[in-house]
Design brief:
Layout: E1 2-7, E2 10-13, E3 18-26, E4 33-39, E5 46-52, E6 58-60, E7 68-73, E8 78-83, E9 92-99, E10 107-108, E11 112-117
Parallel strand pairs: 2-11
Antiparallel strand pairs: 1-3, 3-8, 4-5, 4-9, 5-6, 7-8, 9-10, 9-11
Length: 118
């Protein structure tokens, strides 16, 4: 089992920044991908970004490229999502996820709310 706990969400004005954290514990594999997804009310869950735990290859959804950066600290077992130039459309619950596929993870966190005001 893998446990994921997100933190860092909150309310920010458009154009501002937030950094989300995801603390990882339990059994993980070096080949795992750590991902961030988001879901806004009445919208489908959307892939945001992913990083391979070993090697650090990164992947981004089209809507966040150039604004968001995913990173990880292996020593702290933590994954981060730095979000810059935030827009009201970025408002959503953000979920951390893990698994052998970046877009089809097996494990999910409980989510953290991000609200961007205009």
């Amino acid at each position: 089992q893998v446990q994921l706990v997100e933190s860092g969400g909150g309310l920010v004005q458009a154009g501002g920044s937030l950094r989300l954290s995801c603390a990882v514990s339990g059994r993980t594999f070096s080949s795992y991908y750590m991902s961030w997804f988001r879901q806004a009310p009445e919208r489908e869950r959307e892939f945001v970004a992913a990083i391979r735990w070993t090697g650090g290859s990164t992947y981004y959804g089209d809507s966040v490229k150039g604004r968001f950066t995913i990173s990880r600290d292996n020593a702290k077992n933590t994954v981060y999502l730095q979000m810059n130039s935030l827009k009201p459309d970025d408002t959503a619950v953000y979920y951390c996820a893990a698994g052998s596929s970046p877009r089809l993870p097996a494990y999910w966190g409980q989510g953290t709310q991000v609200t961007v005001s205009s």
